[in-house]
Amino acid sequence: MATALIKKLEGFVHLSAEERDALTKAASERVRRIRAREDIIREGDSPRDVNLVLEGWACRYKTLEDGRRQIIAFFIPGDMCDLDISMLHEMDHSIGALTALTFAEISRSTIDRLMATYPRIHQALAWQALVSAAVQREWTVNIGQRNATERLAHLFCELFLRLRAVGRTHGDICEMPVTQTELAEATGLTPVHVNRTLQDLRASGLIVLKGRELRIPDLAELQRVSLFHPNYLHLDHEGAQFDANGGEIKPVVE
Q1: pLDDT of 208-241, one tens digit each?
Q2: How far apart are CA 100 and CA 8, in angstroms?
Q3: Which residues partner with 107 through β-bridges?
Q4: By CB atoms within 10 Å of each CB, which of 49, 113, 145, 251 scores lowest?
């Protein structure tokens, strides 16, 4: 159940078999399945658990009073929808399924126990939270500064690399079950503008988008066009010093 999460965390630390088993157990205790366009939790609800995406795609979003929606983040397998969300009294945003979704509800007490028992898991979850904040900053730059072509191309680069990090790509192909309307809601463009921009990206040979599948023939070129730098994803195994096979483990900071 926790394969994608383990792959993701092992981009930062080397986990032991015991640590992997502990994560798998935590992700298997309370598993829920919902349909596309159903919500995991809505704005105004009182959060209790940390939600871990196991299969399918979800998003974080805000809706204005007139019905307009802004997607603030995409969640793919291995993503936790806000590690510290249970500390809030009331949700200030919603989390909804974009596809049929399987996710684990992990209690705050289970998260606390994992981090107290396994310092490497604590380090890795803290790293994931920092990366999530970095992705959010990059999305702000994307909407505020990049043009339409750069916005969509940048988003495709990000999603491809995130999927590749959890073993969800096949060569230069990844799943892309996001509609043009959802792409518009994530990039601050209109659906019509998204449609035109996708046509331009296809015509230039930068992407092949067919059905629910995206192919990027030349990732380096797409990164160049979109002014994409992967540093904010921190995929360079920064926690290699926390090796489960004998490396240094920093003490848990209370």
Answers
A1: 999 899 999 999 999 999 999 999 999 876 555 5
A2: 22
A3: 49
A4: 251
Three-state DSSP state, 81: coil
Output the CA torsion sign for 197, 152, 82, 213: positive
Rounded distance between C-alpha atoms, residue 178 and residue 219, angstroms:
19
Q: Kindly report, residue by residue over 75-99, the tens digit of the pLDDT.
A: 999 999 878 776 778 899 999 999 9
Q: Tell me the sheet residues that pair with 58.
A: 75, 97
The number of C-alpha atoms within 13 Å of 47 and in the hemisphere containing its C-beta is: 27
Tokens representing residue 95 in the block = 């989390």
How far apart CA 143 and CA 193 sit, in angstroms, is 14
What residues are paired with 87 via a beta bridge?
none
Q: At 172, phi and psi to the nearest 5?
A: -100, 20
Tokens of 254: 């209370």
Paired sense of beta strands 213-215 and 208-210, if any: antiparallel
| Angle formed by the axes of helices 108-117 and 17-26, nearest 10° | 170
Residue 230: CB atoms within 10 A of its CB come to 13
pTM equals: 0.91
DSSP SS3 for 106: strand
